[in-house]
Every structure is written in structure tokens, then in C-alpha cells.
Design a protein that fits this description.
The chain is an alpha/beta fold and about 280 residues long. The protein is built from nine helices and ten strands.
């Protein structure tokens, strides 16, 4: 489980102030074995009764999602997390946020990490307006602060551009609209550590530009931003450092362009900037 360090050294003016330290982190999921009766109430009851038995006897399978990962993040950094599907990116974010325990090693944070975006607190049967208040309060904002920033949050999300959707229940929203509203709520507050999982993949280019600008503003306020994305352009536009996870292992940690060049070569991605074609020679 992520641990919040109480050692906030006063008047520390060093530029490289660590905000997140991952020390040889292992994260393991335990999945109940499946067999006859899968999905039935009887099978579910049997699994509950087997919890008291050993993992071997109950057929529990271990999935080693993150393996011996170590890194240090600093104030003012925007760090991209990349990797193919199932590489452990989202799992690592949840562990940094304190939502998943680590099997071994440790994660230390200076300040309160916030995983975008408060979706556990938002409720589908409530209107977008009510959820703005609920989400803001869940992040520690006062009701007065949410009221002051309410219109800014709605305008930033853009969900009212084609109608008064903010007054409708969130269950009527598309997945993109919901993701944009969650980002807008989370972005309304400055964070010590902000963890973003694929939020910038939603919405049009205008929303993505607003989001990227807001991330830059968060960094200026001494925050640290982690961004998980399959959109390499968003990573390039937003992050100055990238962690590449593959099969749970930290394969590379370095400047954005250096890591993306290796990653795109690994995946065969053709989105790298093409080299300019040489000008044809003119016969004289």
C-alpha cells in the first residue's frame, strides 16, 4: 500500500524534490480458478466457502502484474506511462494512489496522490451538476470552492456545447462525455500528484489541447503528473519523461523522445515523424 511520508522538510528549495519513490515494487493479483458452474450462484458460493483454504487447494492463480519496478518522480515532472495492453500501467497507477497493495517492495509519496478521476465517487443516477459537487467534495474541496469553479468545470468539459447535458443523469452520457467531465472536475484543483489514465484519449482535439495546457499549469504549481496513454502524440505534447512497462517490467526510463523511439520500433508503430525526403537533383 502506498505510504504518505510525513517528512516534509521545511524550506527545501532544491529543484529535484522527490514526490513518488517506487522501490523494487511487486504487485500480484490472485484470481480464483474457474471450472464447472462458472458464472452460477452455486459456483460463487463455493468460491466463498473455499476462501479459508489454502491458495493451492482453492485453485487460486497468481498473476504477477508488476515486477521489481523502481523509479523516483520529482516535483514539476510530467511522466508518461506507456506499454502494450496488459503491461501493468494502470495497475502501477492504482498502487501509487494507494488503491492496491504491493506484494513486496514499497511505494512512498510526498503529498496526496489523486487518481483521475473520482469515478468511484460519481453516481450514474445523479445529474452532471450534482456529480460536479460530489466529485469536488470527494477531492477535499469545500462547497464554496466547488460553487466558485462550477461554471469553469462545465465549460472546460465541453459537455454542454450541444445541449444542456449537465442537467441530465450521468448514465445518459457517452463514455467520452463522462471521462471529460471527470477530468474537468479533477483538473479544477491543484494536486501534489495527479495520476491520469487515458483521459486525454477522449474528446476532440480542442479538449485535448485544453487538457494538455492544464497539465502544464499543474506542473508549474509544483505538482507531479503521471499520464497513461496509448496516444503517443499526447505523450510527446505533454510529458518530458517516459516510463515504458512491458509484461510488468520497467523496460526503459528516460527522456520522452528517446523512449518513444525505442517503443515505436518495438511495436512497429509508424507514427514516428518521417524523415524529410531529399530534394530531387535537377539536371543541368
Amino acid at each position: 500500500m502506498a505510504e504518505n511520508t510525513a517528512d516534509n522538510t521545511a524550506d527545501n528549495t532544491d529543484e529535484n524534490i522527490p514526490t513518488v519513490v517506487a522501490d523494487n515494487v511487486d504487485i500480484v493479483y490472485r484470481v480464483n480458478g474457474t471450472g464447472a458452474g462458472r458464472g452460477s450462484a452455486t459456483a460463487a458460493l463455493n468460491r466463498m466457502l473455499r476462501r479459508e483454504k489454502t491458495e493451492k487447494a482453492s485453485g487460486v492463480r497468481k498473476v504477477h502484474a508488476v515486477k521489481k519496478v523502481s523509479f523516483v518522480a520529482y516535483r514539476g515532472e510530467a511522466i508518461g506511462l506507456i506499454g502494450t495492453n496488459g503491461s501493468g500501467k494502470s495497475t502501477l497507477l492504482k498502487a501509487v494512489a494507494g488503491l492496491l497493495p504491493v506484494e513486496s517492495g514499497a511505494i512512498y509519496t510526498d503529498g496526496q496522490p489523486s487518481l483521475l478521476g473520482v469515478n468511484a465517487a460519481l453516481m450514474g443516477d445523479l445529474t452532471g451538476e450534482r456529480n460536479v459537487y460530489l466529485g469536488g467534495l470527494a477531492m477535499g474541496m469545500s462547497r464554496e470552492q466547488v460553487k466558485e469553479r462550477y461554471q469553469e468545470i462545465v465549460d472546460f468539459s465541453g459537455i454542454n456545447e450541444k445541449g444542456d447535458f449537465i442537467t441530465l443523469p450521468m448514465r445518459t452520457y457517452s463514455s467520452g462525455m463522462g471521462a471529460r467531465l471527470r477530468f474537468s472536475i479533477a483538473a479544477a484543483k491543484d494536486h501534489d500528484v495527479l495520476l491520469i489514465d487515458e483521459a486525454l484519449a477522449t474528446g476532440d482535439r480542442s479538449f485535448q489541447r485544453r487538457s494538455e495546457q492544464r497539465i502544464r499549469e499543474l506542473r508549474k504549481h509544483a505538482g507531479t503528473v503521471f499520464l497513461v496513454s496509448h496516444n503517443n502524440k499526447s505523450i510527446r505534447d505533454t510529458c518530458d519523461r517516459v516510463l515504458w512497462l512491458e509484461r510488468g517490467e520497467l523496460r526503459m526510463d528516460g527522456p520522452t523522445e528517446d523512449v518513444l523511439k525505442e517503443y515505436e520500433a518495438f511495436t512497429g508503430d509508424k507514427t514516428t515523424k518521417p524523415k524529410p525526403k531529399p530534394k530531387p537533383k535537377v539536371a543541368v
